[in-house]
């Protein structure tokens, strides 16, 4: 069969962005509606994106949303059991975190099916920042990408904590002789591991403004579909650490409508249906709402149940 008539092979990059994580669930709902889930051949993730990657394996949007609804500020940012002054002093002098994540670990242990990562044949990589040099004045970090397939559940849970260990906010995480923190210190948009796979498109699901200054090598062997939502990027940065469950439906809505709009436009142009003929491709193509000149579109906010009903209705058409 000719390459041009084969289904495209897609890689997924799930960026970090804290409490905006439900946006990626909204994108997943649209990807499923448009029939792309079985075309995903590899996934990379950083910080909260690693949590999204774990949820994607449930293949059940309702369960994904229900799990997110269990996450709030008290779960993610539980106070440590010592005084305010001591917490601040510890964070500044020892690079320890201000908050405890014991409650979050308990929630993940109880509710997440980490066995699915062990069992899946879909390659999944977590991006982390490894501490490589530290003295009294300086600390440097190096990007590291760990393939989590076939790892034990305890290892996966440790890496989920490591990739989301925001410096000064949460404690660094030791793992196999190294110390890791959130990849905001190294690579929050881990495309590199996907270079090892035969892909036509890489779908990037960004959550914060750091993505807007990202540049890509023209020699990338795949095209990029960028699910940036301009409407979300206008929000204040502080909401990335505000895990208020009442905000989650708005992120899911923005993710769904961004992805549904972008995918529909690309499909109308005859893209995404077949494998790319890379020999004929003259340059790297990046597709986004901004590049298609519709970045000023404003999406309605709906509750998640209505989003699921809408996606199911659109899928039947």
Number of contiguous helices? 11
Percent in helix: 25-40%
Q: Give the SSE order as H and E letters.
A: EHEHHHEHEHHEEHEEEEHHEH
Q: What coarse outline follows from CA principal-axis ratios? A: globular
Question: What is the name of the CATH architecture?
Answer: 3-Layer(aba) Sandwich
Beginning-to-end CA distance, first to last residue: 29 Å
Poorly predicted spans: 82-94
Biggest beta sheet summary = 9 strands, mixed
How many β-strand stretches?
11
CATH class: Alpha Beta
Q: Average pLDDT value?
A: 89
Radius of gyration, whole Å:
20 Å
Specify the structural class.
alpha/beta
CATH domain topology:
Cytosolic phospholipase A2 catalytic domain
The quaternary structure here is single chain
How many domains would you count in the coordinates? 1
Q: Tell me what portion of residues adopts beta-strand conformation.
A: 15-25%
List the keywords:
single chain; 317 residues; Cytosolic phospholipase A2 catalytic domain; 9-stranded mixed beta sheet; two-stranded antiparallel sheet; 34% helix; 17% strand; globular
Give a nutshell description of this structure.
By secondary structure, the protein is of the alpha/beta class.
């Amino acid at each position: 069969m000719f390459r041009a008539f084969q289904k495209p092979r897609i890689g997924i990059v799930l960026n970090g962005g804290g409490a905006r994580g439900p946006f990626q669930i909204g994108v997943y709902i649209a990807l499923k509606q448009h029939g792309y889930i079985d075309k995903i051949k590899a996934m990379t993730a950083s910080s909260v994106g690693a949590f999204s990657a774990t949820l994607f394996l449930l293949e059940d949007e309702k369960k994904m949303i229900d799990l997110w609804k269990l996450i709030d500020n008290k779960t993610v940012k539980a106070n440590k059991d010592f005084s305010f002054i001591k917490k601040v002093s510890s964070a500044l002098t020892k690079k320890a975190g201000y908050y405890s994540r014991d409650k979050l670990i308990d929630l993940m242990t109880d509710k997440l099916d980490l066995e699915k990562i062990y069992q899946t044949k879909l390659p999944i990589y977590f991006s982390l920042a490894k501490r490589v040099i530290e003295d009294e004045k300086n600390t440097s970090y190096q990007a590291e990408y760990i393939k989590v397939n076939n790892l034990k559940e305890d290892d996966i849970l440790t890496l989920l904590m490591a990739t989301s260990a925001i410096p000064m906010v949460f404690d660094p995480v030791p793992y196999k002789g190294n110390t890791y923190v959130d990849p905001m210190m190294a690579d929050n948009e881990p495309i590199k591991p996907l270079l090892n796979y035969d892909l036509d498109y890489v779908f990037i699901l960004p959550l914060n403004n750091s993505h807007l200054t990202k540049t890509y090598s023209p020699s990338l062997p795949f095209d990029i579909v960028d699910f940036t939502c301009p409407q979300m990027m206008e929000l204040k940065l502080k909401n990335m650490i505000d895990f208020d469950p009442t905000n989650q439906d708005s992120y899911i809505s923005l993710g769904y409508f961004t992805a549904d709009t972008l995918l529909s436009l690309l499909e109308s142009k005859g893209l995404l249906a077949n494998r790319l003929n890379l020999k004929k491709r003259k340059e790297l193509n990046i597709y986004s709402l901004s590049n298609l000149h519709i970045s000023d579109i404003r999406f309605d906010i709906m509750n998640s149940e209505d989003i699921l009903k809408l996606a199911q209705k659109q899928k039947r058409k």
